[in-house]
Design a protein that fits this description.
Distance between the termini: 46 Å
Largest sheet: none
Number of strands: 0
Strand content: under 5%
Oligomer: single chain
Number of helices: 3
Order of helices and strands: HHH
Shape: globular
């Protein structure tokens, strides 16, 4: 695959992730209230590690953006739970 098709695939993937997160956010919130806090905290830490790994191994700008969003979402949710 050439660079332009990789960028298109990355953008499509990014849009799908954003739409899925917007649709699933209420579901995630409902599930998060049903499970213990420490389990959810471990999940958020794993999410932040995943975002950091994506940023570290990515070779394209699109992947950097996706990794940053994953990392920031985990940090934001962890901060929200802490307050």
């Amino acid at each position: 695959m050439n660079d332009s098709s990789n960028s298109v695939v990355g953008v499509i993937f990014f849009v799908c992730v954003v739409v899925a997160l917007l649709i699933g956010y209420d579901l995630i919130t409902i599930v998060a209230t049903a499970i213990p806090g420490w389990v959810y905290t471990i999940f958020l830490i794993l999410q932040m590690i995943t975002g950091a790994v994506i940023i570290k191994v990515s070779k394209e700008k699109t992947d950097d953006v996706i990794g940053t969003i994953i990392l920031m979402m985990g940090m934001w949710e962890l901060l929200y739970r802490a307050l």
